[in-house]
Amino acid sequence: MPMPGPAIEAAIVAALPGASVELTDLAGDDDHWAVKVIAPQFAGKNRVQQHKLVYEALGGRMGGELHALQVTTVVPT
After folding, report:
1. Which of 1, 24, 70, 71 has the fewest CB atoms within 10 Å, i.e. the most exposed one?
2. pLDDT tens readout for residues 63-76
3. Are 11 and 74 in contact (CB under 8 A)?
4. pLDDT for 32-61, tens place per residue?
5. Continuous H helices in 1-77
6. How many folded domains does the chain comprise?
C-alpha cells in the first residue's frame, strides 16, 4: 500500500519539529513523491547529512510503502 502525503509530512514533522514540508505527488499514485523540507535542524549540516535526517524520519518505509522520494532540503534564513 502506498504512503499518503499526510503520513509523510507527519513523520517528517515528528522527527524534525518546526520543519516546513511541501509535498508534490509526482505520478498521482501516492508512491512517487517530491518533498521540500525547510528545517532549523539542517543548519551546519551538509546536503547529505540533511537528506539523511529526512530519510531517517521515514524509518524503514523507503523501498516499501514509499517507492520514490525526491528530496530538497533548505536551511531557514
Report:
1. 1
2. 888 889 999 999 99
3. no
4. 999 999 999 999 999 999 999 999 999 988
5. 5-15, 47-57
6. 1
CATH of the domain at 57: 3.30.300.90
Fill in the amino acid letter for 58. L
Distance CA 20, CA 60 (A): 22
Q: With bands split at pLDDT 50, 70 and 90, how would you rate the model's confidence at 13?
A: very high
The number of residues in the chain equals 77
pLDDT of residue 64: 84
d(CA 68, CA 77): 28
Bridge partners of 21, per DSSP, are 37
* Nearest Cα residue to 22 out of 55, 67, 58, 70: 70
- Amino acid at site 2: P
